[in-house]
Amino acid sequence: MADLEGQLLQALNDKECIADSGDFAKSQGVDHMAVVGVIRSLQASEMIVAEDIDHFRYALTDESQTYLAAGSPEAQVFAAVGPDGISLAELKVKVPGEAGDVGFKQAMQQKWLALDKSGGEPRVVRKVDSIVDATQALLADVAAGKEVPKADAENLAKKRKLIKPEQWKTYKLTKGPKFALERKKPATDLTADMLAKGTWRTQEFKDYNFNALGVLPTGGHLHPLLKVRTQFRKIFTQMGFEEMPTNQYVESSFWNFDALFQPQQHPARDAHDTFFLTKPAATPSDRGVPADYLQRVQSVHEVGGFGSAGYGYSWKLAEAEKNLLRTHTTAVSSRMLYRLANQPGGFKPAKYFSIDRVFRNEAVDRTHLAEFHQVEGLVCDRGLTLGDLIGVLQQFFSRLGLKKLRFKPAYNPYTEPSMEIFSYSEQLGKWMEVGNSGMFRPEMLRPMGLPEDVNVIAWGLSLERPTMILYGIDNIRDLFGHKVSLSMVRRNPICRLGL
Ligand code: PHE
């Protein structure tokens, strides 16, 4: 091929023009298609200019090739009939098939033959002594590439289908703006070497092909946690819960702990358990926390109220202002409940949920990371009881496919009573802890301004635990963090809860 390219460039250089690439192909003894390949590539490099030459001709069909040798069907039939005539049956034997049928019809139309029905069985007889086989002569002309009268050509092509039209292109070639005897391969990359030697100044670079299709992006795969989150969202929304805004990882200790009646000397508020921020280390309490509410929180911690004795210690504003990475999404719930209590038009019952990231200063092992996701639900309404909490939990967990539940008394600073939730795993044959729950304490709700008869039932669980069970992942570091294999993310199936 490279050779053919060289020959073509040489010929063009010698004669300034190649009048017809078809003739050039013949002179080189190669197929014209091979020359076309070379033309296209040289054209793309602007080394030559190619002008189309359109060609048209008729060619014989396979059937008409045989008539070129043996005579047209009508001539074959005329010959078979002979001077004495012949019966139709005999004619069919002598000129069988298509040729016999077509030839008989044509010869009758030409009035070369007639059908004599005078003596019993009809006989085919000649009406003329001799004929000229014009069809065969026309086919010979077509085969020789000679021009034939238009009417004859159309009759042979359309009515008798003995010849077929053929169209093709060849090219007139002239030198292009970048003509050269040898192709300079344009560089596809600027190299350090070109820069060092300065050859980039004269180097030809390949044009960008803006029409080239790129590699299909392999993005767009959802992580298992996101799939399970979608399922949880569905369950919550089906149960009439509204999602809380959780897009704030940094919280003040106030919303994360103090508003939840968690005393300031509680061990969870230690730097060993919580990530505190150093920059900025604090959120001034006048930002978003009204002074009267702050005052009521301080007072409930110090001396109690609403039937509580409080903790009896000296509450420090500076401690409440400390910034931290939220340790639970209950920080979001406390903000939302305060808003609910103080919204224009007064309190209205609400059902809220959230699913988002929380952070704990913990030693990392195969089941613990320093960050994970919490799923939290809460119902805020008048006159709610522990029975309501158990009922909602039964509904919620049965939608996950966990129908057998048990509850165990537990402790949270902000709920009373509190219950750990256990579910029986048929797979493992044992009871497993699946969540934590309770009724928010009056020490939390009343300072916010929620009416006395309003209760809040709430529960929380991790998103990771059910995801690991569903996807058969036994090391949390395979699910979340820098060790996660991307192919795991690409391959994992959609999530179906409750099946
Ligand atoms: N905040 C609790 C936790 O971090 C979960 C919880 C939410 C418990 C709501 C009771 C009520 O485990």
TrEMBL record:
EC assignment: 6.1.1.20
Keyword Transferase: no
Keywords: Aminoacyl-tRNA synthetase, ATP-binding, Cytoplasm, Ligase, Magnesium, Metal-binding, Nucleotide-binding, Protein biosynthesis
A matching Pfam family: PheRS_DBD3
Cofactor: Mg(2+)
Catalyzed chemical reaction(s): tRNA(Phe) + L-phenylalanine + ATP = L-phenylalanyl-tRNA(Phe) + AMP + diphosphate + H(+)
Highest taxon above the source species: Eukaryota
Transmembrane segments: none
Gene Ontology cellular component list: cytosol; phenylalanine-tRNA ligase complex
GO terms, molecular function: ATP binding; metal ion binding; phenylalanine-tRNA ligase activity; tRNA binding
InterPro entries in alphabetical order: aa-tRNA-synth_II, aa-tRNA-synth_II/BPL/LPL, Phe-tRNA-synth_IIc_asu, Phenylalanyl-tRNA_Synthase, PheRS_DBD1, PheRS_DBD3
Any one GO BP annotation for this protein: phenylalanyl-tRNA aminoacylation
Entry annotated with the keyword Nucleotide-binding: yes
Aminoacyl-transfer RNA synthetases class-II family profile domain location: 227-493
Subcellular localization: Cytoplasm
Oligomeric form and interacting partners: Tetramer of two alpha and two beta subunits.
Family to which this protein belongs: Belongs to the class-II aminoacyl-tRNA synthetase family. Phe-tRNA synthetase alpha subunit type 2 subfamily.
Name by which UniProt lists this protein: phenylalanine--tRNA ligase
